[in-house]
UniProtKB/TrEMBL annotation:
Organism: Acinetobacter baylyi (strain ATCC 33305 / BD413 / ADP1)
Highest taxon, organism lineage: Bacteria
Name this protein carries in UniProt: Serine aminopeptidase S33 domain-containing protein
InterPro entries: AB_hydrolase_fold, Hydrolase_4, MAG_DAG_Lipase
Ranges of residues in domain Serine aminopeptidase S33: 43-292
Length: 316
């Protein structure tokens, strides 16, 4: 019997700590959060968050519960609930490091009598989920993948993407802790948090308002993973890719910050999703934010309608 404890979210949310061998920083843990449906079900979803993020999207969990899925989410190592005092936030040398907690979480979900699992991810988590499904086709309990604005490419100009990122990635091999200025739009978290200009409550220490720099280790890990996507991977299970209808980069606060993806270029998401071989569905969400499930009420309602309509055709 897995020994869960009450989670910080309360209201039936539980968590369990997953322990792993020490890495280059020392002790490593990840955290699996669950919220069970009131319906007895063999279906479950495993959700993976994005960069500088953690699981707090309770409305998404409750939507899955209402549709007959037990909900599980990972706080990956060195993020959110899993960050230990001796660790650097999000410090990773290779995205494959996360395979250990994804596999451990899937083992637990299967032990808890789930045979039909949706693997889901947002942004960096979408990149991780896509590659995990491609790398582990023997995980037969994973029946489909849903990615919400997956991080298939850096949102930079042509020269920066083709020359700058490869050079920084190479430096990241030998100088992983070196920090480079970040180009993340400063209005994104402002558009979300209830104390600023949004409606959502979350921990600003775990999902900060700004990130002025990024470690080269992260750039290297993402670049190596994205190269696989760019070459074209193959999936043997259905994939749903969702993204906003537009990308904007507002310099001042305006409505673009509330109706656009201000983090990634939606054209890149669509371009590289089309390179994935298999049963791939790409859907555009009008006025969606980077995290589509945190968009305005009518937008996220559309996200859930389209998601569950798609799931009804793919997981029967």
């Amino acid at each position: 019997m897995n020994q869960y404890t009450a989670d910080i979210l309360g209201d039936g949310y539980q968590q369990i700590t997953l322990n792993f061998p020490d890495d280059y920083e020392g002790k490593v843990v990840a955290t699996l959060v669950r919220k069970k449906s009131n319906i007895n079900t063999s279906r479950a979803v495993l959700y993976i968050h994005g960069f500088l993020d953690y699981f707090f999207q309770t409305q998404m969990a409750e939507q899955f519960n209402q549709h007959g899925y037990d909900f599980y989410a990972l706080d990956l190592r060195k993020y959110g609930r899993s960050k230990l005092p001796h660790q650097i936030f999000y410090n990773v040398l290779d995205l494959k490091e996360y395979d250990a907690e994804i596999s451990a979480a899937l083992d637990i979900i299967q032990q808890e009598q789930h045979q039909e699992i949706l693997l889901a991810g947002h942004s960096t988590g979408g990149l991780i989920a896509t590659l995990y499904a491609a790398h582990y086709p023997e995980q037969h309990s994973i029946r489909a993948v849903w990615v919400n604005s997956p991080f298939y490419e850096f949102n930079l100009n042509f020269i920066e993407k083709k020359l700058g990122i490869p050079v920084l990635s190479q430096f990241g091999r030998v100088l992983p802790k070196f920090k480079f200025p970040s180009k993340l739009n400063r209005w994104y978290v402002t558009s979300l948090h209830h104390s600023l200009k949004g409606e959502w409550a979350f921990n600003l220490d775990w999902k900060p308002k700004t990130a002025s720099t990024v470690q080269l280790s992260f750039i290297h890990a993402i670049h190596e993973a994205q190269k696989e996507i760019h070459k074209g991977i193959k999936l043997n299970i259905p994939l749903l890719v969702m993204h906003s209808h537009q990308t904007k980069n507002p310099k001042k606060w305006n409505k673009d910050a509330t109706q656009s993806d201000v983090i990634l270029d939606v054209k890149d998401i669509k371009k590289y999703a089309k390179k994935i071989q298999g049963d791939v569905t790409i859907q555009t969400i009008s006025n969606g934010l980077h995290d589509l499930v945190l968009s305005a009420t009518d937008v996220r309602d559309q996200v859930y309608r389209q998601l569950f309509d798609w799931l009804d055709t793919k997981i029967s």
